[in-house]
Design a protein that fits this description.
By secondary structure, the protein is α+β, with helices and mostly antiparallel strands. About 30% of the residues lie in helices and about 25% in strands. The strands form 5 sheets. Strands 9-10-11-12-13-14-15 form a 7-stranded mixed β-sheet, sandwiched between helices. The structure holds adenosine-3'-5'-diphosphate (A3P) and magnesium ion. The site of adenosine-3'-5'-diphosphate has 16 residues, from strand 10. This is 3'(2'),5'-bisphosphate nucleotidase.
């Protein structure tokens, strides 16, 4: 129903992502002494794109959903079941700003290490207890991000749960490795002013670096605030010169409130996501970035309840990060027809059953070949509208870790998509290190229609699968 009202508005300049916006709080008086408080934001281009509305009327708990593409008329639907964000506008802005800068720095660090890994041999690889490769980049990113968050937000205010521990690195026979990590961290932190952050007064010593890594010892859980960090997600992709991600999320009282995903090798053209990394490197070399363009790499970020997700290019060469660094909004794809949809899954069939997803793809009418990509770059692909579906069905008994999903999930949700387990329930980030209670697998989709088709297909085929 169209809304006719006389209103009283206060305008506040506001920035979340790339475009300058004006945030307006409007009080709309209605009959019976009640009033609405409307929070809306208007872009420079005059499009109103997000609004929240609360009705303050005695004996009423109704909530409403507004949608509008221009600032003059609203379409209002009753949506009693819809949960609106209760976040104040601007909440977590400082944390988001710092997190994006920290992830930009982490991407810069990773790019340097990956380049040297590819040009050298595998001498910089070290086997973890589970035999997965871990590199200098994992520890260096963890130390760098931990140090930045502690310095800027105060170490007493910062709790971090992260993938790496210091055991291997602290061993007597790891002195060379530790030295390389300390050097990498200091080289990166020396560049902090380029990213709008303060560099340490003097270089960090090995004990400070070990301290920064081991400070990431939060166990997560349902209460309070903690960061979840995957310093290099998709380590296998990283060591192969392929896709990987740096993932940082802020979780408060069990809910993800901020997500920042750095994808240093995300190609400018989505078709290149499916190219073998060697081709991509050749193409990158043939088309060097000009001062106006960037050939790969982005940081995507969002804040819970904002209804928007943003993408910044990585800063190139010796340039400075000027906030928000040419950020552009990202939105999920509008494709609903399975025949036109692209689905992503892990490269490694050990991480997700390719045969089960092939069966699902067939039964819902997906026609394209799966897009197999390492790491949380798959979440980025959905949020950017470059693919429509991400499915992961790990073997029975495997427990998904929160840092492998938190940032990607919130980014897809705020970009307009849907992410649940295969039973249609939200992923639960409140149970510590693992996504406890996850039903069968993870399904992320650009839209609810595709999502429903896939969850139904899972139900229909699960019992006859070997999973
Ligand atoms: N057996 C297994 N089943 C499912 N996921 C696994 C797995 N072993 C490792 N993983 C997770 O899958 C992530 C890689 O994702 P993908 O397969 O999509 O590239 C790994 O992140 P790390 O590389 O950070 O350890 C790890 O957390
Ligand atoms: Mg990971």
């Amino acid at each position: 129903m169209p809304l006719n009202c006389s209103s009283l508005a206060t305008k506040v300049p506001h920035t979340l992502g790339g475009l300058k916006t004006t945030a307006t709080t409007t009080t709309i008086h209605v009959g019976g002494g009640g009033f609405f408080n409307l929070f809306s934001k208007t872009h420079q281009n005059n499009s109103l794109y997000i609004a929240s509305l609360s009705l303050n009327k005695r004996n009423s708990s109704q909530r409403y959903c507004l949608s509008s593409s221009s600032s003059s008329s609203f379409v209002m639907e009753d949506t009693k079941d819809m949960v609106f964000s209760t976040l104040e506008p601007g909440k977590y802005s400082k944390e988001l700003d710092i997190a994006v800068r920290a992830v930009q720095m982490a991407c810069f660090l990773c790019q340097k290490v990956q380049e040297s890994l590819i040009s050298k041999t595998t001498s910089q690889l070290q086997a973890k207890d589970d035999n997965s490769p871990v590199t200098i980049a994992d520890w260096s990113v963890q130390a760098t991000v931990s140090w930045i968050l502690s310095e800027t937000l105060g170490s007493r205010n910062v709790a971090i749960i992260a993938e790496e521990d210091v055991q291997t690195l602290s061993k007597a026979d790891s002195a060379g490795l530790l030295e390389a990590v300390v050097q990498t961290v200091n080289d990166c932190l020396a560049e902090a002013p380029r990213f709008g952050l303060k560099a340490p007064g003097t270089s960090l010593g090995s004990s400070e670096v070990l301290e920064a890594i081991s400070r990431c010892n939060s166990t997560g859980g349902p209460n309070g605030r903690f960061w979840a960090l995957d310093p290099v997600d998709g380590t296998l992709g990283f060591v192969r010169g392929d896709q990987y991600a740096v993932a940082l999320a802020l979780i408060e009282d069990g809910e993800v409130v901020l997500g920042v995903l750095g994808c240093p090798n995300y190609p400018m053209r989505k078709e290149w996501l499916s190219y073998h990394h060697r081709y991509h490197r050749i193409i990158s070399k043939l088309t060097p970035p000009t001062s106006e363009s960037w050939d790969k790499g982005c940081v995507i970020y969002t804040r819970r309840g904002s209804g928007e997700a943003w993408m910044q290019p990585l800063i190139q060469g010796h340039k400075k990060l000027v906030w928000p660094n040419s950020a552009t909004p990202v939105k999920v794809s509008t494709i609903e027809n399975p025949a036109l949809a692209t689905f992503c899954e892990p490269v490694e069939k050990a991480n997700s059953s390719h045969s089960f997803t092939a069966g699902l793809a067939h039964s819902v009418g997906l026609r394209k070949q799966p897009l197999r990509v390492y790491s949380m770059v798959k979440y980025a692909a959905i949020a950017r509208g470059d693919a429509e579906i991400f499915m992961k069905f790990a073997r029975a008994g495997y427990k998904e870790k929160i840092w492998d999903h938190a940032a990607g999930v919130i980014i897809i949700q705020e970009a307009g998509g849907v992410v649940t387990d295969a039973g249609g329930r939200p992923l639960d980030f409140s149970k510590g290190m693992y996504l406890e209670g996850l039903d069968r697998g993870i399904i992320a989709c650009a839209g609810a229609k595709l999502h429903e088709k896939i969850t139904r297909a899972v139900d229909a085929s699960w019992n006859s699968s070997s999973l």
